[in-house]
Amino acid sequence: MRRIIILGTAVTVLIAASVAVAVAAASTNSYTGSTLSFKPSKAGSKHKPVAIGFTETLMASNNTPGEVAAPLTDIKTSFYGLVSNAGHFPTCNGTEMTVMKSDSFCPKGALVATGPVNSYLGGTSLSQAKATPCNPFLHVWNGGHGTLWFFFTTGGQYQCAGLKTGATAAYPGHISEHGKYMVTNVPLPPDISTSVANIPNFYGSLVKEVLTFTNLKTKFHHKTIGINESIGCKAGKRPYSVSFTATTPSGPQTETVKGSAKC
């Protein structure tokens, strides 16, 4: 009888512990609606690559009503069948953008992507009632050597809680190839995530970002090439994934959204 009681108690403790772990591991953010689309929707091949552009629609929300999304600290996208030719295109230096608080000096041919960003700025409580809308416009520049530079601008309809262009520093992303996938990893520094504009515990919470990567082309060895090219698809589809890492009260959390586009 005593042995049964002890075993029963042990099982109860294990169940309670597993429930506690499940609660602690519950996702804070949801990324429903995050998608990628590609244009043109052609597969191409290694011998006949197709220059391609694409649009990222990234969305985040908190699973708790009345709260904004926990701040993101990394976004990683993986695209099947794409390769980068950025090394043959003009570049611009993110360090200079940060110092000059402007990117107006950058060569036009180095501008890789642009798009609006909708977000909230607020404290660590993530209370939407205490958060302020922040809706800047994002520029993405070719930095060379597999680097992209991301720089927020404001002006006109794109305003961010009184912050001006250059209030946050340019930050880098990195392009690499893993097997048949082109991977773009963008660590989001505290300056735009957990200490926006270098204000401690001033959180930036993404709502929506629509970033369009232009189908840039140039001449190389008397041949027209695209900054991004498609060299193949998989069963008529282009698989992709977007991994979001956020800072939450229970620690870092990573969620991955997977999908595919017609090819």
Description:
There is one protein chain. This protein is mainly β and 263 residues long. The protein has one domain. 12% of the residues lie in helices and 46% in strands. It is built from two helices and 19 strands. Strands 2, 4, 6, 8, 9, 10, 11, 12, 13, 14, 18 and 19 form a twelve-stranded antiparallel beta sheet that branches. A three-stranded antiparallel beta sheet has the order 3-17-7, with no helix packed on it. A two-stranded antiparallel ribbon has the order 1-5. Strand 10 and strand 11 form a beta hairpin. Residues 1-24 have low confidence and may be disordered.
Domain unit count:
1
Shape annotation: globular
Mean pLDDT: 91
Major β-sheet profile: 12 strands, antiparallel
First-residue to last-residue Cα separation: 66 Å
Q: How many DSSP-defined strands? A: 19
- The proportion of residues forming helix, as a percent range, comes to 10-25%
Helices, by number, come to 2
Share of β-strand residues: over 45%
Calculate Rg over CA atoms: 22 Å
Summarize the helix and strand pattern as letters: HEEEEEEEHEEEEEEEEEEEE
Classification by helices and strands: mainly beta
Low-confidence stretches: 1-24
